[in-house]
Write a structure and sequence with these properties.
Layout (H helix, E strand, L loop, with lengths): L6 E7 L18 H8 L2 E3 L2 E2 L5 H10 L3 H4 L27 H7 L3 E6 L13 E7 L10 E4 L2 E4 L4 H18 L4 E6 L13 H10 L19 H9 L9 H28 L6 E7 L4 E2 L5 E2 L11 H4 E2 L1 E4 L8 E3 L3 E2 L3 H9 L32 E5 L2 E5 L3 E6 L6 E4 L16 H4 L1 H22 L41
Parallel strand pairs: 1-8, 1-9, 2-14, 3-15, 4-5, 4-8
Antiparallel strand pairs: 2-13, 3-12, 5-6, 6-7, 9-13, 10-11, 16-17, 17-18, 18-19
Helix pairs in contact: 5-8, 6-8
Length: 496
């Protein structure tokens, strides 16, 4: 294997909250293989996605752009090209993805798992190996996928099927002595959560767990009438079920994560078997977070109306592991964002990005490297957006502004890490005094406006888009040709 170019594997899960790993404090979930990556590498405990729903978050990881630069503002509802009348749309066409730069730098790039950025049956962004699920989610049993442009039906548990394909890609590259990049992008633990996962795992969690690490807060007043992920789980559940319990859902979610952990273990074994473990950077993260009862909601950013940006929706696990070159057994709490990922990876590989000056992120490689002499100035803020909802977060404060009229939120994270008390509510003013809170809101709003003014593209700025969490139908701006761009809110979106 070419020792001059390290291999890279990005393990990207779907809807995984930061809290759902043993290495991040969960005492009941079984994730020994992922925990081993953390104990042997750097565990980033304050890493945030760019948007709390899958497609825009994934687009930001791939391109280094915020949603108001790449134009994907909600999960892709149309444009995959999979059903009659659903014409394929390449949502990121014309926007550079780091995989394209890696190909130019001599890498073979492969993806195994979820794509969900449009035109699913058309390999894109430099990937020569293309094994992707049809859309954003679906059954975990005998699922259909695209291998290249051919649509095929698989057999077995989807998480295992995705792992098998990834291992085959590694073998192929190792046989040909080619440096590779692999995007191992699991659909787990995305819903459906019930009657879909390995029975022995589900049984274990239902019989042995208290789920004490997942607080069940009273139902939020912002929770939508039919929560997407619960409704979706009911759609795929056994027809003999009349209803779902929270324990059913939690056991399925935990079982899905454990299925991913199995895949991580097999991946590491394969790298060791091929003699390339010490030359392969493994990165583990998720597209967005997830609430399993926290804040009285089930789901992510689109589980409420107005859309939410709670830490449980935007904070994700992030682990970097490469023996000898990445620090071992280190936890770092610097505030970092998904838009920092692309410059960090390219910096690690020594690959230039001619468009770097237009992007908001910066490399945090000095935080990762053993014996690094470079200075990294910790970011004091991270930013997020979901349509007309924007967030600015420091270690002490968090402000959310909703255009045009709110409601806005302000949290004192030092004294309220769970974001339970919005200080802009009238009954909280007495704790700080109205003048202090008004000044703090104005200060953070000004920083928010300045940052987004610098990076947002006016023609595709999410601030003016009617995103309500029900899905994106086509490209935004002039490219929409006057068509309806975002699915309006609907009461019921599932069937039995």
């Amino acid at each position: 294997m070419n020792k001059q170019k390290p291999n890279v594997i990005l393990i990207l899960t779907d809807d995984q909250g930061y809290w759902s790993l043993g290495c991040n404090g969960n005492k009941e979930i079984r994730t020994p293989n992922i925990d081993a990556l953390a104990s042997g590498g750097v565990n980033l405990s304050n890493f945030f996605c760019a948007s709390p729903v899958c497609s825009p978050a994934r687009a930001s990881l791939l391109t280094g752009c915020i949603p108001s630069q790449h134009g994907v503002h909600d999960w892709i509802r149309k444009g995959a090209g999979e059903v009659h009348g659903d014409a394929p749309v390449k949502y990121l066409e014309g926007i550079t993805g780091y995989t394209e730069l890696l190909v130019s730098g001599g890498y073979t790039c492969g993806i195994s798992g979820k794509w969900h950025l449009g035109a699913t049956g058309y390999p894109q962004k430099g990937y020569s190996h293309w094994f992707v699920t049809l859309g954003g989610s679906g059954t975990y049993r005998d699922a259909e996928v695209y291998r290249g442009s051919e649509r095929i039906k698989t057999e077995g548990y989807l998480t295992d099927v995705i792992t098998e394909d990834a291992l085959s890609f590694i073998d192929e590259c190792a046989d040909e002595d080619k440096p590779f990049y692999l995007n191992l992008t699991y659909t787990a633990p995305h819903s459906p959560h019930v009657d879909q996962h390995k029975e022995e795992y589900v049984k274990y969690y239902k019989e042995n767990c208290t789920f004490a690490d997942v607080p069940q807060h009273p139902r939020s007043g912002w929770s939508i009438h039919h929560p997407h992920d619960i409704a979706y789980s009911l759609t795929f559940a056994s027809k003999e079920r009349e209803y779902l319990t929270v324990r059913d859902l939690l056991a399925g979610y935990y079982a899905a994560v454990q299925g991913v952990d199995d895949g991580v273990g097999r991946l590491v074994e394969k790298l060791e078997e091929r003699g390339i473990r010490d030359n392969t950077l493994i990165i583990y993260t998720s597209d967005n977070g997830f609430n399993c009862g926290q804040h009285g909601i089930w789901g992510k950013g689109n589980s409420t109306m107005p859309l939410n940006l709670f830490d449980t929706s935007v904070k994700v696990p992030c682990i970097f592991n490469l023996p000898g070159k990445i620090q071992g057994g280190c936890e770092n709490d610097s505030l970092l964002s998904a838009y920092d990922f692309m410059p960090t990876l390219l910096d690690f590989l020594g690959i230039e990005n001619p468009e770097a000056g237009k992007l908001p992120g910066r490399s945090f490689l000095p935080l990762l490297q053993t014996g690094s002499s470079r200075v990294y100035h910790e970011s004091i803020t991270v930013f997020d957006e979901y349509g007309p909802n924007r967030m600015i977060r420091t270690k002490k404060w968090k402000y959310i502004h909703r255009y045009p009229y709110g409601p806005n939120e302000l949290y004192d994270l030092e004294n309220d890490g769970g974001e339970l008390f919005n200080l802009l509510d009238e009954n909280r003013y007495f704790l700080y005094g109205p003048k202090f809170l008004e000044e703090k809101e104005a200060e953070m709003k000004a920083q928010l406006d300045e940052w987004f003014l610098k990076y947002a593209e006016p023609q595709i700025d999410g601030r003016k888009e009617p995103v309500c969490g029900r899905g994106q139908l086509c490209k935004v701006g002039a490219s929409s040709e006057g068509k309806l761009t975002f699915q309006p809110a609907m009461e019921v979106e599932y069937s039995r």
